[in-house]
Amino acid sequence: MSDIAISILNCDFNNIKFELNRINDSIIKYIHIDIMDGHFVKKNTENLFDMKSICKYTNKKIDVHFMVKKPKIFITNFLKYNPDIISFHIESEENISKNISLIKSHGIKCGIAINPDTDIHTLNNYVKNIDVILIMSVVPGKGGQKFINSTFKKIKLIKKKLLKINPKIKLEIDGGVNNLNSKSLNKSGADILVSGSYLINQKNIKKASISLLKV
Ligand code: DX5
Ligand code: ZN
């Protein structure tokens, strides 16, 4: 069975305590934090998340997704929030292996995110040393986009080629995940489903998150 992460990119930040409370009481495992630098993608969310309040009010694990050109400084700044997973992009500009080591040296699980148009072979050299592949099912940059259907093919290919090298890797799917595609994603072997707008827009997040687990 997969785990659910909720992207809070589009939540009501003026009522963050209320927003997190309605998540606390659900089977959701992770709060997915989308950090954008205004360079790797257009949007900048560096000051959007009040991490102190988020850590104070949530009882969930933190899953950080850096959509940034230069992850190192962001990784360093986030260590104090004790995240469970930190993911950065294979398309980022710094030395990938060094940033993997930086994350792992702090006992944090390391994910590498991959854009819809990027070839999975770019991950070859790193799969032995990472814990998660964050497969983007939309072009990164904003919430509320439509799920790209070729993601299913990509999951299959990653399972066939990369999980052979490291079977322990978890596959996390991010973007446009909802109750219409979750069943197929679960069948395809996804380990973590990230859902943003679909879950946030529900009155009853508890019920909606359970619906994402169906196989
Ligand atoms: C896209 C982000 C996703 C996104 C998920 O750039 O990485 O995490 O916000 O939100 P939905 O489910 O609305 O696509
Ligand atoms: Zn994300």
Question: What attributes characterize this protein structure?
Answer:
215 residues, alpha/beta, 8-stranded parallel beta barrel, 8 helices, 20% strand, globular, binds D-xylitol-5-phosphate, binds zinc ion
- Percent helix, as a range, is 25-40%
Q: Ligands in the structure?
A: D-xylitol-5-phosphate, zinc ion
Number of strands: 8
Main pleated sheet: 8 strands, parallel, barrel
* End-to-end CA span: 8 Å
Number of helices: 8
Mean pLDDT: 97
Helices and strands, in order, run as EHEHEHEHEEHEHEHH
List the helices and strands and how they pair.
Blueprint: E1 3-7, H1 16-24, E2 30-36, H2 51-57, E3 61-67, H3 71-78, E4 85-89, H4 96-104, E5 109-114, E6 132-136, H5 151-161, E7 170-174, H6 182-188, E8 192-195, H7 197-200, H8 205-211
Parallel strand pairs: 1-2, 1-8, 2-3, 3-4, 4-5, 5-6, 6-7, 7-8
Structural notes for this entry:
The chain has 215 residues and is α/β, with parallel strands linked by helices. It is 29% helix and 20% strand. The chain is built from eight helices and eight strands. The protein has helices at residues 16-24, 51-57, 71-78, 96-104, 151-161, 182-188, 197-200, 205-211; strands at residues 3-7, 30-36, 61-67, 85-89, 109-114, 132-136, 170-174, 192-195. An eight-stranded parallel barrel has the order 1-2-3-4-5-6-7-8, surrounded by four helices. Strand 4 (85-89), helix 4 (96-104) and strand 5 form a beta-alpha-beta unit. The relative contact order is 0.18.
